[in-house]
Amino acid sequence: MAFTLPPLPYAMDALESKGMSKQTFEFHYGKHHAAYLNNLNGQVAGKELANAASVHEVMLATWNGGKPGPEFNNAAQVINHTFFWESMSPSGGGKPGGKVAEAIEKDLGGYDKFVEAFKAAGATQFGSGWAWLSVGKEGKLEVSKTANAENPWVHGATPILTLDVWEHAYYLDVQNRRPDFISNFISNLIDWQRVEQRYLEATK
Hints:
- The protein has 204 residues and is mainly α.
- It folds into two domains: 21-85, Helix Hairpins; 98-203, 3-Layer(bab) Sandwich (minor pseudopilin epsh fold), CATH 3.55.40.
- The chain has helices at residues 22-44, 55-63, 72-85, 98-108, 111-124, 171-174, 178-189, 192-203, and strands spanning 129-135, 141-147, 158-164.
- It has a three-stranded antiparallel beta sheet with strand order 2-1-3, with helices on both faces.
- The longest helix has 23 residues, at 22-44.
- It is globular, with a radius of gyration of 17 Å.
- Mn(2+) binds at residues 28, 81, 164, 168.
């Protein structure tokens, strides 16, 4: 069976009041995300990889120790985008609470330090890529950036938040002003309840 595109967790126009337009979702989810999925299905058709239990399994199997196979980019982009959509909410924004807030204080020096580091990760990623907040191998939070489709999973970390800084993620809404896009994501879009849930699952 072919892999299928996970549905958005909200309507395409649900984040318009938060600065992310329906048009962006129509292109970003409806065309870019869908194309990664369709390309992956074409790549694995008739191969053993088509029998994998999940796209995540395909992604890890094709990372190949940093020399990724041809299926990796599409599989990773399907995973990365799904994770990105689920990192946002129409009721998102504000500051974190719970255990993840305690971990941000302990591991990163507090919320303001997290914001500074996350903004820097997104703004300084040259070209296309992603900014991440992850639980590292030692169980501590870490902020990182990756190029293209690469992500923390392939390095043994467990992401709990991501921001897509490929140009197609923001150009229709803010043109080339990536820092504005990053600031709006942090202030208005992060689903901290979902991030908390991911943190608890990663550290139990």
